[in-house]
Amino acid sequence: MSRKWKIFRPVLDFAEHYGVSVNGITADDIVKGNLKVVLALCHSLHRHFASSAVANPQVDHVVNKDDLSLFSWVSNVTGKQVVNFQSFQDGTVLCLLLNKILDGVIPNLVLEFGSAVEKISLALKVSSEQLSIGTSLQADAIANQRCREKFVDYLKSLYMVHSNKFKKVHDAFEQRNLRRELKRQQLKEQRLQSERRGSELTYLGDLSQDKSRIARERLKISLASASKGVPSDENLGNVNNTRRQIDELEQISNGTVKDTGRQIDELEQVSRTIASKKMRGMEL
To answer: Where is the Calponin-homology (CH) domain (predicted)?
Structure first.
């Protein structure tokens, strides 16, 4: 009995605090099961909340699909569960929504210690000044769930601002990706061009070396034929000098075809001189 009394006493105090008439109704009568007292309490509760509904007919729990879509969007953005208009009463969800749109525009101090009216008032002020969203809504109207149509229009305006911002961010991201891809293609093309130029230079170098090698082989054959059978020391000295010139020529790895040709002409002239001396010696 004592335990039940402790339960019903706070209930009656709570009802009386919110304007429910509990005159003549005691916790003892309820615990004892006095039907007249219980019926009187039920009648007082019905009369109080029925009159409140008549005074404020907009307070209901009917939410259409468009409103549910808005609530779902707010939930996704803020991370808070939003199921109906009551979720906006304390102003916290509205402030969190604006913080997402404007990157922390509402101070944490206001979120933690501000009253519902203070939070909603600041949210409306920020929307008007920084987002150019004008509205005739008052903070107490949102807190008391009045003017729902205007509040829905206000949420739609916030949704449009957030969508445009997200689109701009997405477009900027796509542009950065496009520029990065173009830069990558340019670097790839430059690398391919460098490789092609390198291949051409390698081919020309190989060709130059091949020509120089052929010229040197021809020179060796000519000199060998010219110096064959020459007994004199003078001729041997000339041949050795020629061979030394050939060795110096072989050390030139990056010479051009033109320079190599000129050296070949000079060496062939030396060969002809040696051959001429040989012929004169044989005649003598």
So the answer is: 1-50
**84-114 core/surface letters (b: 16 or more CB in 10 A; e: else):** ebebbbbbbbbbbbbbbbbeebbeeebeeeb
Nearest to 223, CA basis, from 258, 259, 255, 269? 269
Q: Provide the CA 33 distance to its chain's centre, in angstroms.
A: 68
The residue behind tokens 């008052």 is: 138
CA distance 125 to 135: 10
Please write down the long-range contacts of 171-176, taking CB distance under 8 Å and 24 or more positions apart. none
> How far is 245 from 274, CA to CA, in rounded Å?
15
Is the full-model pTM beyond 0.85? no
For the stretch 64-81, pLDDT in tens is 677 888 888 999 899 888
Structure tokens at 249: 């020529």
Please state, in angstroms and rounded to a whole number, the distance separating the CA atoms of residues 170 and 172. 5
Q: Provide the 10 A C-beta neighbour count for residue 223.
A: 22
